[in-house]
Request: fold
Amino acid sequence: MNIAPHPNDLRPIIEADRRHVWHHMLQHKPLETNDPRIIVEGKGLKVWDAAGREYLDALSGGVWTVNVGYGRTSIADAVRDQLVKLNYFAQSAGSIPGSLFAQKLLEKMPGLSRVYFNNSGSEANEKVFKMVRQIAERHNGGKKWKILCRERDYHGTTIGTLAASGQLQRAAMYGPYPDGFVMVPHCLEYRKQWDVENYGERAADAIEEVILREGPDTIGLLCLEPVTAGGGVIVPPEGYWPRVQEICRKYDILLHIDEVVCGLGRTGTWFGYQNFGVQPDFVTMAKGVASGYAAISCTVTTEAVFEKFKDDADPMAHFRDISTFGGCTAGPTAALENMRIIEDEGLLDNCLAMGARLRANLLALKDKHAVIGDVRGLGLFQGAELVKDRATKEPVDEKSVARVIAEAGARGVMIGASNRSIPGLNNTLCLAPALVVSAAEIDAITAAIDGALTAVFG
Ligand code: PLP
Reply:
């Protein structure tokens, strides 16, 4: 393995970065005095930065993307071969890797039959919103145009997808937003909104209440994450999903599940919704589709939806949309090889086994550290919510969360935290290691968290 070059070799790069690059999601001031982090190389779960430091990455590339791990030469080789043959053609024409990948993907998604290629999760979600608006206009007499979304969920960075996102930290100050995006309550039982036994059903009933308030004939879509990821690792309680499906059918509302994080194995099934026996009308996916080896996202839907855009007599009937780089062949080529790796290496099973180990380790940490109020997650997306007091559930402050992350980093492990979806509530540590993670690596991750919690909270 190549070890990252000595820091001095990269000093000009670091200075160029400091002067010219606008980093995502970071405050600017600290970068005036500290070196920016530059990641140089990766292999498996390990990455090396420009200072030559080695980290175990428990976040799959910072934002839960590199599902099959770093350094996959078979993906690089497949992409190289395809690029030499044909790098691009607009998606009004098909491509060999696009057709093969669509077919293989849909084998894992019974009931769904059409794939629309884009580049990012945001774009994949925007396409659903546009499809729903066009269906409303052409088939529902202008009705059923509103889109229901949930508090604490995130759907993307564009104005439309931010309107659909229930996360203050992402959405504040970028409005005004387009009309017709309506929030339903989140379903996190740890922070109860209803004092009932069957919490899952009750939380789903809250969606029905919003539908009745808005008028069922105004609502065309319900858009939900299968497990809320950055909004605090929220696994809907038992009873939630079946009731959601029932409500959608009752009011003729299309169900869109945003699998941008959970898609391609993150929760131990190909897709997060497959844990819950629910049947969506739209599924969007991005991050793990090609594990970050190429930019690709997909908007997947049913034949019934596809049929609504068919009318040769009307030149406005088809979906009048294009994504230029949806025609890059690197995406589906990398995605096809990514799926082969997940299958051939049994990564769904590894995800379940290692997810269970991670969860057990976190629960053991909860016994030791009073600051852990709740441990929750599915497969290899796990979270630990930090509170000042277990009885009141008052969240720890943001600075303490940042210190825990820094202390874990000082111990060679990269971990992250939830977004500030509700003021004060960015207090959940998030862990999403690659699906290739080993038992020893899981134990190293939780040992670093143990040390970090002791260093910060005693
Ligand atoms: N949907 C979910 C659930 C996400 O977590 C994200 C990004 O984190 C997105 C959509 C947006 O994806 P992208 O950043 O590729 O546009």
